[in-house]
Amino acid sequence: MNVRLLIAVFGGLAFAQAPSPALLVLNKSANQLAIVDPVTGKVAGRVPVGESPHEIAVSPDGRFAFVTNYGAQTPGQSISMIDIAAMKEVRRVDLGPLRKPHGIFFAGGGVYFTAETNRVIGRFDPASGKVDWMFGTGQAGTHMVSLNKDLSRIFTANIGSDSVTILDRVNAGWNATVVPVGKGPEGNDLSPDEKQLWVANGQGGTVSIIDIASKKVVETIDVRTQRSNRLVFTPGGQRVFISDLSGNELIILDAATHKEVKRMALGKAPEGILMQPDGALIYVALSGEDAIAVIDSKTLEVVKRLSPGSGPDGMAWVAK
Question: Assuming Cys at both sites, which of 42, 197, 217, 316 could form a disulfide with 24, CB separation 3.0 to 4.6 Å?
Answer without folding.
Answer: 316
